[in-house]
Write a structure and sequence with these properties.
Blueprint (H helix, E strand, L loop, with lengths): L5 H6 L24 H5 L6 E7 L4 H10 L6 H15 L8 E4 L4 H7 L3 H13 L8 E3 L11 H7 L4 E3 L2 H4 L4 E8 L3 H12 L5 E8 L1
Parallel strand pairs: 1-6, 2-5, 5-6
Antiparallel strand pairs: 3-4
Helix pairs in contact: 4-6
Length: 210
């Protein structure tokens, strides 16, 4: 049976080209090499791919997935990502391993699960890429990024991660998975610590981009 009703499926806004080569946002100005955000703040990841735009009804569905125990949404969400990868023939097999964005232990206890890990498991299984879900440690219980202004998000997440076993990511191509890319601050900070530990190419894959 379909988890998402036909109305919801038809109402989703898919991310379409031309993509910014850095963050995959729709490139309105085709004469630009990158989107305005990526020109002003160059994130630490090499590139990001996002399947859908963060608009209704997906906005509400992601909220339910994250905060209201609607974990069954991991399957249709992962399928949206897989369809996107296939449609635009992104080379996901260049990655040696997948690492989901981690939650601070206090946030994990509150929620009971990490939605990024649930998505990452689906993608890792589909493409037979090893999943390292305990490698990226959240060292600070930061404020919810959603409550902050764009600039504040970059300072809020500073020094919020570390890598548990640097030797595991050394010389490897790593794919970070999360549900949402907004400013890119969280993914950028995670990419920074992976690269500091010797990671090579660091890509980001998310369900939605805001």
């Amino acid at each position: 049976t379909e988890v998402l009703c036909l109305h919801c499926q038809a109402s989703l806004t898919h991310n379409i080209p031309p993509f910014c080569p850095k963050c995959s946002r729709y490139l309105k100005d085709r004469s630009s090499v990158k989107c305005r955000d990526c020109r002003s703040i160059n994130p630490h990841f090499d590139f990001a791919w996002s399947a859908c735009l963060y608009t209704s009804p997906l906005k509400e569905l992601i909220y339910q997935f994250k905060y209201n125990q609607k974990t069954y949404l991991r399957k249709p969400f992962a399928q949206l990502i897989i369809n996107f990868i296939k449609k635009y023939q992104f080379d996901i097999l260049q990655f040696d391993m997948i690492i989901p964005i981690s939650l601070h232990p206090a946030r994990f206890r509150e929620r009971g699960y990490n939605q990024a890990h649930l998505l990452a498991k689906q993608i890792a299984h589909q493409y037979h890429i090893p999943l390292l879900h305990k490698e990226l440690i959240r060292t600070r219980n930061t404020e919810h990024q959603t409550l902050l202004r764009r600039k504040e998000r970059w300072t809020n997440i500073l020094e919020a991660f570390r890598i548990r076993h640097p030797e595991k990511v050394f010389g490897k191509n790593i794919l970070i998975i999360d549900d949402l890319l907004t400013t890119g601050a969280t993914a950028s900070e995670a990419a920074k610590v992976i690269k500091s530990a010797g990671g090579k190419t660091v890509g980001v894959l998310t369900l939605a981009i805001a």
